[in-house]
Amino acid sequence: MRAMVYRGPYKVRVENKEIPRIEHPNDAVVRVTMGAICGSDLHLYHGMMPDTRIGHTFGHEFIGVVHEVGSSVQNLAVGDRVMVPFNIFCGSCWYCARGLYSNCHNVNANATAVGAIYGYSHTCGGYDGGQSEFVRVPFADVGPTIIPDWMSDEDAVMLTDACPTGYFGAQLGDIAEGDSVVVFGAGPVGLFAAKSAWLMGAGRVVVIDHLEYRLEKAREFAHAETFNFTDYPDIVVEMKKQTDHLGFDVAIDAVGAEADGNLLMHVTSAKLKLQGGSPIALNWAIDSVRKGATVSVVGAYGPIFSAVKFGDALNKGLTIRGNQCPVKRQWPRLFEHVRNGHLKPSELVTHRFPLEHIAEGYHVFSAKLDGIIKPLVIPSAA
Question: Cα 216 to the chain's mean position, in Å?
Fold first, then answer.
């Protein structure tokens, strides 16, 4: 089969790999019909995440058709059209029993630190991902779901990570009716978080970024107020002014490890790799909310030190909540929203790259060229 492989920072290419095989009776092999490049894939591409090994295949957002099933699989059959959550989980451990699928304890040797994720370095289990023609899907009776007949492929692939993660970000904010919400980052997750904040009763939603085309999308898709942080000497001061100098009720960090805005922090984290990620967006979130507020973190960070302003968070009495999204727990409500027309996840798709051109896709997405918001990947086997 053809698959994207990592050859080092900023270097990816398509090579031939063996079609994955059934390794356990609960496995399935899925022929990928559509995948995507996620903003968090760029952290891998840029060399930000530890233990990203040469030859690894990225891609944690994908849908496809069941090609083969193990002898114990009961809920899927060959030919089923399925969507696969980015989390790999067993469905029966202490965490899975509580719906914390992203924290499953049985699928990753590093499970005390993080659950397992398709195509996201050996820190997250070392599973090859879906930027390929075929992918092995462990615990096939637990993770994948048959795509409803009424759902389009592009909506389905967006529901494997980006849309549920944004929704989860708003959910972690514990938004009360009428709350003011500020979202840092106008990538797909931030845009979905802003849109979801309205569904949860927000009275005001603000999105902050520095790319004008993404801010325009935030106004169009999420109906949010927007601020370009490069237009202000201090975006935190401006956010205080916007809220009678009290601060927002909820802040959502949808940026993560490679936030711009402070040259020193960006260089020490994104360039020199001295931190687990630039804490700029998270620190802005801490400073932009009122005392007693909630800060939600769904942007991806590495596991090592980051210079977060924890003393300020403590003294303000903030609640900080974060996690990798347990995707399948979000699906019932999100399916309702999509079917009822409240959400159209595919509206954020801007580019579609053949798998053979995935190096170009990563370059365009990394450099933010051509108005890119969300790129999909189309394998030639589809």
Answer: 21
